[in-house]
Amino acid sequence: FRFVKKVGSDLMDIRPEKRRAISFNMLTGSSCLAYGVGMGKTFCSIFTLGQNLDLGLCKRPVVIVPNSVYPQFLQEIKTLLPQYKVNGLFILRGIYTEEVKDIKDNTITIIAYSGLDTMGFKSQEVGLDLFQRVKEIVDQGEVEQQSEKKIAKQNEKIVEFLGLAQSGADVFFDEVGFDYLCVDEAHNFKN
Known about the structure:
It is a single chain. This protein is an alpha/beta fold. Helix content is 41%, strand content 14%. The strands form three sheets. The protein has a four-stranded parallel beta sheet, with helices on one face. Strand 4 (85-88), helix 4 and strand 5 (107-112) form a beta-alpha-beta unit. The termini are far apart.
């Protein structure tokens, strides 16, 4: 895949653990990185996103990040993948609500967690299918060890995250056509 080889005066090097993360995602179709602080999760997710775009496996990826890291993540995507236009839509309010309806193919969209408050699904079927997929990734085989109450609370968080319960949504995932989802700090939706 294509990425910037030099940032400032520093040469970029994709270290082995990042290569393994990208390879794992390409082999399985999804991944959940649990590297420690400073190990390069952000770069791994950006490189994986670039690989998927370059191979044509997605056309309209969306990256969802905590509000606090939105500016940094936005800048890192623009720096590492300058060949792609980046739609920085922050919290999807005001002009951004209209802008999201005109997302072009082969662009990267980044939204802060707060932007999810304005999003939902028009088709309950599409939303429930995505719910099941996200749930499988988040569960990672831990369901047997959890109480029914904990499972119900976790399901509620996933439903909230995906906007399945959004009655007043301004933007609908299934109309925008996002076909790749990257969530930074996804554990925020599990706990």
